[in-house]
Design brief:
Layout: H1 6-12, H2 38-45, H3 60-73, E1 77-81, H4 84-93, E2 101-105, H5 110-119, E3 126-130, H6 135-141, E4 146-152, H7 164-174, E5 178-181, H8 186-189, E6 199-203, E7 217-221, H9 245-258, H10 264-274, H11 277-296, E8 303-305, H12 315-322, E9 329-333, H13 337-345, E10 351-352, E11 362-364, H14 376-381, E12 388-392, H15 398-411
Parallel strand pairs: 2-3, 2-4, 4-5, 5-6, 10-11
Antiparallel strand pairs: 1-7, 6-7, 8-9, 9-12, 11-12
The structure holds pyridoxal-5'-phosphate.
């Protein structure tokens, strides 16, 4: 357990090791780092001494960001990367190799779905898709080739909420880890480690950044899964790192070699965003609940999905996992695609763009943007249809948001 409250850690990072001098804000915009002696560089590279040599491997801004996220997720270490997709790719490729299978929820961000189906398949790695809210289906999908289970805390954009404790119990029985994409809940709403997530991944471009000004990702190891077993034989050379084997393998064999490093300036922006994460997540959640309640009673809205709505089939699990704050993402459906387009084209301060987690309220028509490459059947499986608008509810004044939705709905 962290000694300080997460609100304090978000701002100060590691207080125990704080150096009480120097700038409170800095960007180490340097490709490489000079050392006094040849011995010094060797010692840093051999990890006998803490330090930095080359920014593709590590950089002070990356390290600061990694430390904060790791403290917030209560992990044993973190790796910051160039994007959320880099985090998903690298986090999984460290475990998977040719001939392996893994289980993934169908309710998935389109980029992860494309990575699993279009890219991993080229390397002989097979995803087995399941309904991640059906534990029996998950259990039945495990076989001796299965190396991990991948799920999203809140499926984007289906907004379903898998029961992590139950899935973790199944994974433990099967001797495999659970990798959780915690982007939509963030460590502010969900202490994923306490519910059994072995590896936690974030697209930091979203709520962690909070202002839509930098792409980044992060992987955190909870330290709860031991890869030192026959099934994970290519971890053998990393046995010497003990409980840090996953982090060492991921950083050295995959992250550094693929060059998926986070830029120092983006790491700085992500750390800055993190300072207000908790405040923002509460506001996003309150505004989203109010908007979801408004939309769910509006006669022109055919369906509203938000896990915080009491009539949502995922409400009980969401409440158990997140308490009273259910995140900032919701979807609603109008009569037709034409009506959805009309809604978007009549906006005033809402932004029409394919992002989420910004302080500003964002709307997008997923079927014709993020999911444009998929046929109707695949879209349906991924939880998308032509009538749907996705809303990333911002932290503006709640009544202004609701008024804008009301005005547009009355106009179309
Ligand atoms: C749940 C989820 N995971 C991963 C990603 C990928 O993140 P990035 O765009 O930072 O690569 C996204 C992006 O929207 C996302 O919503």
């Amino acid at each position: 357990m962290a000694e300080y409250h997460p609100k304090t850690i978000e701002i100060h990072g590691n207080i125990k090791n704080r150096i009480k001098s120097g700038p409170t804000s800095f960007v180490a915009q340097s490709t490489a780092f000079e050392h006094e002696t040849a011995e010094d560089i060797e010692n840093v590279l051999r990890q006998r001494k803490f330090g930095f040599t080359y920014s593709r491997i590590a950089n002070p801004n990356m390290a600061q960001f990694e430390e904060k996220i790791n403290l917030l997720e209560e992990g044993i270490g973190a790796i910051a990367l160039s994007s959320g997709m880099a985090a998903v790719s690298v986090g999984l490729l460290s475990i998977l190799k040719q001939g392996d299978e893994f289980i993934s929820g169908y309710s998935l961000f389109s980029g992860s779905y494309a990575l699993f189906t279009d890219t991993f398949s080229r390397f002989g790695i097979r995803p087995v898709f399941v309904n991640s809210t059906n534990e029996k289906e998950i259990e039945n999908a495990i076989n001796n080739k299965t190396k991990l289970i991948f799920i999203e805390t809140i499926g984007n954009p289906r907004l379903d909420v898998p029961n992590l404790k139950k899935i973790s119990a199944i994974a433990k029985k099967g001797g495999i880890p659970v990798i959780l994409d915690n982007t939509l809940a963030t460590p502010s709403l969900f202490k994923a480690k306490n519910f059994g997530a072995d590896i936690i991944i974030h697209s930091a471009s979203k709520y962690i950044n909070g202002s839509g000004n930098a792409i980044g990702g992060v992987i955190v190891d909870s330290g709860t899964f031991d890869f030192n077993k026959d099934k994970y034989d290519d971890f053998a050379p990393y046995k010497k790192y003990g409980s840090l084997a996953y982090l060492a393998k991921t950083r050295r064999q995959i992250h550094t070699n693929l060059g998926t490093c986070l830029s120092p300036h983006n790491a700085f922006l992500l750390s800055l965003g993190l300072e207000t994460l908790d405040l923002r997540m509460k506001q996003h959640s309150q505004n989203a609940l109010a908007l979801a309640e408004f939309l769910s009673t509006h006669k022109k809205v055919k369906k509203t999905s938000y896990p915080g709505l009491k009539n949502s089939e995922f409400y009980e699990t969401a409440k158990e996992q997140f308490g009273n704050n259910f995140g900032g993402l919701l979807t609603f459906e109008l009569e037709s695609k034409e009506k959805a387009f009309e809604f978007i084209n009549n906006r005033t301060f809402l932004r029409n763009l394919p992002n989420l987690g910004d302080a500003k309220t964002l709307i997008v028509h997923p079927a014709s943007t993020i999911y444009v490459d998929y046929d109707d059947e695949t879209k349906e499986k991924l939880g998308v249809n032509d009538r749907m608008i996705r809303v990333s509810v911002g932290i503006e004044y709640k009544d202004d948001i609701i008024r804008e939705f009301d005005e547009i709905l009355n106009k179309i």
